[in-house]
Amino acid sequence: MPVKLSESLQIYFKKLWLEVHSPVFSGKLSSLRRSSLAESIFRMSMNASDQLQKPLTRNIIRRSIFGTDITTFENFMLNHWEMQPLYLARCSKLLQEQDDIFSSIKKTLAFDENFQDLSLFLQKLVSCPPITSDELDILGYLEEARCHLGLPISYQQDIRVLKTEHMKGEVHYFQEDSHILCKHDILRCDRAFEDGYTIALRGMEFRLKKIAEIVDGLASLFGQPSAGINMYITPPNSQGLARHYDDHCVLVVQLYGVKKWTVYCKSGPDLPRLYGSFNSLNVMEASNLSGDDTCLQYLLKEGDVLYIPRGFPHEAHTVVDNDMTRSSLHLTLSLEVELPFEWEGFVHVAFFSWNHKQNKSDQSSSDPLSTILNDLALKLVHVSISLLANSYPTFQKACLVGAVPEPSDSCDWLSTNQREIFRELIKQVEAESNFLYIVKHMSSSLEKNEDPLQQLRWLRNLEDDSAEKHVSLANEHIILCNRYKDEAGAAFCQVKSRFCSEVVFDEARPYYIQLLKKYRKTREKYMNGMLLGFADADCLM
Prior knowledge:
Layout: H1 3-20, H2 31-45, H3 58-66, H4 70-79, E1 86-88, H5 101-109, H6 118-123, H7 138-145, E2 159-165, E3 169-172, H8 183-194, E4 198-201, H9 209-221, E5 228-234, E6 249-256, E7 259-264, H10 280-287, E8 295-300, E9 305-308, E10 314-318, E11 320-321, E12 324-325, E13 328-335, H11 343-361, H12 368-391, H13 393-396, H14 412-432, H15 435-447, H16 475-483, H17 485-502, H18 505-534, H19 537-540
Antiparallel strand pairs: 1-9, 2-3, 2-4, 4-5, 5-13, 6-9, 6-13, 7-8, 7-10, 11-12
Helix pairs in contact: 1-2, 2-18, 3-9, 11-12, 11-18, 12-15, 12-17, 16-17
């Protein structure tokens, strides 16, 4: 379709969509036809990135959060990232400056200090159906999500209205677990806010174009495929979420009012991993701690930033500031580290790239058994890397290899740091991998009908047919290990030793960057589809 015709048709469809959702017209079109219209708008919008403003660069994001002194960011990355909280005082006057990234958001939101008529803002938002972290087929995703596009916001998925009470813990204003908020529900949010409930909104990067400009630069700064931004509006003398920890790192940015944060010590060295099982015991242990050395407290005023690593329990409530009781609005900039982009993921990619190189240079063995045992050894090395990742927290940390600096940056320290971490991890693979333990773990998993390599399905996204061979195990592999124990053990040790002595960081990096770009491309299409398709231009530009 010609570009001009496509743009005109897109504008027409969006106008029609707004009419379809008006009270007068809504009953005249079936839900099927409404979902088809919404899907058409999404499809036409997801490739129209030229209609959005250019995303903010990593340099602008870095300066806005960490200031102009590069050593502040370097200190953060080397001494605080995924290790310790960090409070960054930013003068509130920055929120009045034209070139401050957060001032533009505050101007776009244009709330008054009492946050009156919140419901008017909420009525203009649409639901953002979730997309799984490993979804790289946006058209396949649309087949499942098409009936959920363009709908009003959904409770739990898009919005939560809640407060924490001393004896009851978290209390939700709406009792239903998950449901689409009708207009009557949204109007009730004003009353809920007056009664002390926090309005928590997820996925703001899909709803406000000014916020969308930030997330690409933020993801690039930390070498991740994507970032997210949530918004929390809390009334005076109130607490929204109860004490909890997150499976992702957050940067809290205070836009309105004042909020007091309490951050507790992490219970152990392991990092909670994205979508892993929630261990409430750690939070309960933190809740029972007492004393000045068990927690840190921060008073965030307008413009201030607080970094909280994943795994650190925390809670926050509004306070009286200068004898004034005020409401609060803060953003949480979240950095979710998905498995392929942890250090475990990079080591898996490095092993894959090393083996790909061997396949090009080595001649195939004429002995069928040797070939079979070699293929088995490749799988066992992947299992070994995953087992080590469960025991050594460094494997669980975010890999920053994708944080490619701009030419004007001087980030040799970051490159050096990443290479040093990689060398240490390879040493652990060499020293700690144990054939008998791996086989025992593999047998136990298969007895439970669990594939130890199930979490490595993402390796298939590397552009190579051999990637498929790496990511599945079956009972016949156990039979091979038991029948040819000595030969299988020797093959494993040989493959592992050769990998650890021959792997090259710079040869693995292109495969990793290739994977990173694929993940980013899918998220870019989803963001374009939501922003250009359903954001209300009159209030969200």
